[in-house]
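Give me the fold.
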Amino acid sequence: MRPSNERLFRRPIHGPSSKLLQFDEKKSPKVTFAENFREYCLNTTLHGLKYIGTVSLTTVERCFFFVSFILVSILSIYFITNVYQKWQSTPIIIGLSPKATHIRDIPFPAVTICNMNQATRTAAEAIKPGTLEKAILNSICSLDGEFNMTNYEGKWSTVRKMLLSATQPCHSMVEACRYAQTTYNCQHIFRPVLTDEGLCCTFNSVDSSFLLWNRTNGGNRTELPDNPFVPIEWTPETGFVGEANNSTFPRYIAGTGANMGLTVVLDANVKDYYCSSTSSYGFKLILHNPTETPKMAEYAHYIQVGTENRIVVTPRISDASYLIRKTSQATRQCVFASEANLSYFRTYSRNNCEMECEARLIQDNCGCVLYYMPKLQEDNKICSKVDAGCYEKIRSSIAQTASNTLSCSCLPGCFEISYSIDRSSADLCVGKFMVRENLLHVNDSYARDNIALVYIFFSETYFRSFSKGELIGFTEFLSNVGGLLGLFMGFSLISLAEVIYFMTLRPLFAKRKEKADRTNQETVVRDRHFNTVYNNMYPIQQKAGAHQRHVHFAGVTRQNEQEVNSMQNWPKQIKLLISSRVQQIAGWMDGAFRLRRTKINRPKQISTLPFYE
């Protein structure tokens, strides 16, 4: 019985046969780093590296191409660094939008008008001395006196009630108004609003529900009584939410010219002046974004009584591409609506952010807020004359741009709209001769001392916005880098794939192939050793003088004769024998059929000799 390989290899092997197990490891292929790098240089698409890996070149030639490749790489890195610095330093560009904006797509500006008289003489004389209302009045008019409502309940409601009762109401200040050739009841389109100039009147601002997060928490606006118009939402970023028409507000721009704008007749009632916010009498007027609370004391324009004023409005629109959202706020220098974090105002703008920041700083440092500022908490204390030194210092520090201790870092909105005006005026003459304006119903002497006529309108139908966009986006940056790498080195994404392949995949699969070759070589050596040992243990008994026949199968050489004839490979011998016999029989059959067809298809030869029976 033939022993198995396992039993055979358990025996100790000595002598010459043991040398068969010692295969040559030097003949086993190993992929070293140098060989891998050489293969990469010969096969890469990068320019110049194939000359470094070419063995037929001399060392000087290969060094020349190596130094050239290093210099070219340094140049490409230098230019790529310049492109990257430009991409990081100036990624945003501001330019005129190629698409013009129609005036119907933007709202008519919010118009806020204040009488310089902060309290009427009639209301001031009716207040009793020594009362809280008198102290509030003196504080508003910056007169001597102080008020402190620390121990008084309903602080803000008391101040608000006092301001509404002591100042000139809107229906008294705005006597007549007309918009887009339609005359309206001024109480329906002008609403009272508290500003830093006291109680003022605003036209075309958004409703408080769209302006404030919580309009019941110290809101500075008063709802219009019996308002027949429907409020809709508008923001600089989204535009009108819903359909804007003649029965909604804020109103869209109806058209160009004085007839399609806003016309108002203002009455200062100079005889009823008690205290003025300036050294004169008249009105203050400002045009602003419908979602903002204006700063009248600092930025409003004067409107003198006894004059007719024409104000031509020019909108300044700023928008931005949504592609710059991925750029940081510090780089693009603007804030999108979804990024705003205001606590009081719903819509973000620089003015709203600065007003909320100023109120927060005064509240934190002085423990109170001014009456016109946002009330971040319901029980906020209203600042009195006692707190004037504190809040004036805070406001002065905020106004100084060089101040770093107390400042409000508010970026502009990425979508904003502002209005610039060009004003002209002339003396108002009523009663001396017939005039075209039918809203004036006063005599000349009263008009000259108290009345101002104001026309606010647009002169152009289309405007171009200032748009922020990407100067160098990621696609452009990638194109520039790819162009430089292609110019200097012939680099492409395939080159990157080659680097990854030769660094990871090729060494991995080379090690696997090396391990498989080693295993195959060990198997061959063991098989040879097994055959040698077996033949020594079980020699073939042959008759003396008998001729030994050697059978060579198909595909088997004489060098492998010993392995084929060994008893270990007898299944292979039988398989090869059967295969050779089948091939031989098939050859015989094919030859026989071919000879048969040849005989059948061969034409018969007709003899030309005479035939004799």
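Confidence is low (pLDDT under 50) at residues 1-23, 145-154, 540-561, 604-613.
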